[in-house]
Amino acid sequence: MTIESVKPGASAATSLREPPLAGGGVPLLGHGWKLVRDPLAFMAQLRDHGDVVRIKLGPKTVYAVTTPALTGAVALSPDYIIAGPLWESLEDLLGEEGVATANGPLHRRQRRTIQPAFRLDAIPAYGPIMAEEAYALVERWRSGEALDVTAESFRVAVRVAARCLMRGSYMDARTERICADLATLFSSMYQRMVVPLGPLYKVPLPANREFDRALADLHVLVDEIVADRRASGQKPDDLLTALLEARDENGEPIGEQEIHDQVIAILTPGSETVGATVMSLLLVLTEHPELGDKIRDEVKTVVGDRPVAFEDVRKLTYTANVVTETLRLYPAVWILTRRAVTDTELGGYRIPRGADVIYSPYAIQRDRRSYERNEEFDPDRWLPERAMDVPKHAMSPFSVGNRKCPSDHFSMAELTLITAAVASAYRFEHAPGSDSRPRIGITLRPRRLMLRALPR
Ligand code: HEM
């Protein structure tokens, strides 16, 4: 489907059908309670009701899009912008002037500023840091004690993003604080999104106070990072320098608020998504030990006995396919929202101007209509000859279009390197207290993984 084919004439839009209403809503909360209680199952069954389905979140009507082609059409169409419940719930955190929340010309300028740091030819320079952090995990896990995988995964994600993109040892002392703050914020934000009871979240209950404290601390941390860099007088060739030196459309330096929001808008999604995916990868390696054995064999063949280096990554095709299959079944960004800026059409349905549109990469990527043995973990479905069978937009863990994750290559390199390093050193088993059920917040990850790393 092309963008043009979903753009109606203004008069056509008014004569279109209204999408069906999903069943099971209740007064006041609408379908919000289902999105709190079992959101993955709720989103996954919506396609049975139609390609586009109306759902109620509190008093709001939201349009859920359920087919790969139509989610691709939404992501690629200029009729939708970044707005809606997800982004409103994230606004306190991300501000309004960072690349993840800005729209229009401001967004385009910001993408131009940050893009060079994520370009394919920039990534090899990050290789030594990624490898160092991957092997720091291997070293830390030698003790044989039960690992708190949440802390370990988020630590490595924050450290790699911060060290690669905002070079400096100043991050070391702050990593723990960033991880703790983000964990608090991301768990509450999901509820704020699906049950948007605005003023109630201002009531000074313990959970709300904890949220406000974490948010304030994260903003202080970012101000400290920027102040430290300025005080150092150094201008390494990195993303932070690009942000500090950026100019607006009039050639003036960009404002302090925008710099602040930009740092948050890059560090936050970067840490949360990679942390969640490292957790999912470790769960996969625990539950399918044969995958780890094959990764170990591949590393032995390609690399030999020395540590895996960044330069090896592109030859580790089996390992990369395990990462890809993990992103299919456990997409960290499992839900996305947009807002229609004009009356428009989608799959023959009328989408009114101002409507919130929602879709789930999790539901799309597990759909039996797109994947044979859809629930089965099968890295070989990403072999080139088989990958061709996957319908367009049925696998978009980094999204497509102008909001596509700038960090797709960066993240794939990082995740492949970490997976190769840890799987060739260890097998994993659950330790007491491990709970691998999904924890659904703004991102998706296992709830509380406690693992034991068994040396090979
Ligand atoms: C945007 C996924 C890692 C920075 C996005 C989007 C997705 C995504 C799906 C699009 C959101 C939308 O369409 O509304 C992921 C996944 C990751 C990952 C699955 C890793 C497994 C990272 C990292 C960074 C990063 C490491 C930075 C260090 C961003 C930024 C945006 C974004 C700044 C906003 C882009 C824009 O709106 O123009 N990511 N991401 N991501 N991601 Fe990632």
From TrEMBL:
User: Keywords on this record?
Assistant: Heme, Iron, Metal-binding, Monooxygenase, Oxidoreductase
Q: Known Gene3D superfamilies for this protein?
A: Cytochrome P450 (1.10.630.10)
Superkingdom, taxonomy of origin:
Bacteria
Q: Which SUPFAM superfamilies match?
A: Cytochrome P450 (SSF48264)
Recorded hits in PANTHER family, A to Z, give:
BIFUNCTIONAL ALBAFLAVENONE MONOOXYGENASE_TERPENE SYNTHASE, CYTOCHROME P450 FAMILY 4
Q: Which family is it part of?
A: Belongs to the cytochrome P450 family.
Protein name, please?
Cytochrome P450
- The organism named in the record is Streptomyces pratens
